[in-house]
Write a structure and sequence with these properties.
This protein has a six-stranded parallel beta sheet, with helices on both faces. By secondary structure, it is an alpha/beta fold. It starts with a strand and ends with a helix. It has two domains: 138 residues, TPP-binding domain (Rossmann fold); 80 residues, SIR2/SIRT2 'Small Domain' (2-Layer Sandwich). It is built from eight helices and nine strands.
Length: 229
């Protein structure tokens, strides 16, 4: 029976594919206050601006390609039962070929009903147009969790983390809750690793790899695969 490897990924792994975040200095959200484009209130106040903003983000995601960090996680499936929990709203893990991915904050390649977040739809191109409606007759919006909204998949993520034999954090400094608290749900005897260029406050039993994901993840995956030989 394969050991359970749980991977928590953040913006750092996607940044190497060219997708910056609003947390980056000079990042793609610069010029847009987060409360103007990523809250329910912003959607009520100016849905056209929010829609345009996410249409542009979606276009960037479609143009981006998975990097060596994404691809290495696919290889890990050869000898581990791998689940990826991602804070990212892009589909780069899927396009790299990973089998089991949980999106904490939704995925930008899908739309959702404005009144029922469980009604989601594939977006054929890069654009959701104003006037495109869900089956309940309300405007379609991006399938992403905005600031101030609950994170519906967090309980499932907690259950997954509690089963981990190996827990790997990639490209996140564990500053944003509730996702940052997932490491506390991992069993004490699990092997824990962080691959990130930024410092993070974590317990001493975590092995730190201060390298970009495209470099550090392939090295770690190779090491883990050898340990199962």
């Amino acid at each position: 029976m394969k050991r359970k490897a749980v991977i928590l990924t953040g913006a750092g792994i996607s940044a190497e594919s060219g997708l910056k975040t609003f947390r980056d200095a000079g990042g793609l959200w610069e010029g847009h206050n987060v409360y103007d484009v990523a809250t329910p209130e912003a959607w009520q106040r100016n849905p056209e601006l929010v829609q345009q903003f996410y249409n542009e983000r979606r276009k960037s995601v479609r143009d981006a390609q998975p990097n060596e960090g994404h691809r290495a996680l696919v290889k890990l499936e050869e000898k581990f039962d791998v689940t990826i929990i991602t804070q990212n709203i892009d589909d780069l893990h899927e396009r790299a070929g990973s089998s089991n991915i949980l999106h904490l904050h939704g995925i930008i390649t899908r739309s959702q009903s404005s009144i029922n977040p469980e009604l989601t739809y594939e977006i054929p191109g890069w654009e959701i147009e104003m006037g495109q409606l869900c089956e309940l007759g309300t405007q379609l919006r991006p399938h992403v969790v905005w600031f101030g909204e609950t994170v519906p998949m967090i309980e499932k993520a907690v259950e997954i983390c509690m089963q981990a034999d190996v827990f790997i954090v990639i490209g996140t400094s564990l500053q944003v809750y509730p996702a940052a608290g997932l490491i506390d749900m991992v069993p004490h005897n699990a092997s824990k690793f962080i691959v990130d260029l930024n410092d993070s406050t974590v317990s001493r039993d975590v092995v730190r790899i201060n390298e970009p994901a495209s470099v550090g993840v392939p090295k770690l995956v190779e090491q883990l695969l050898k340990s199962q030989a």
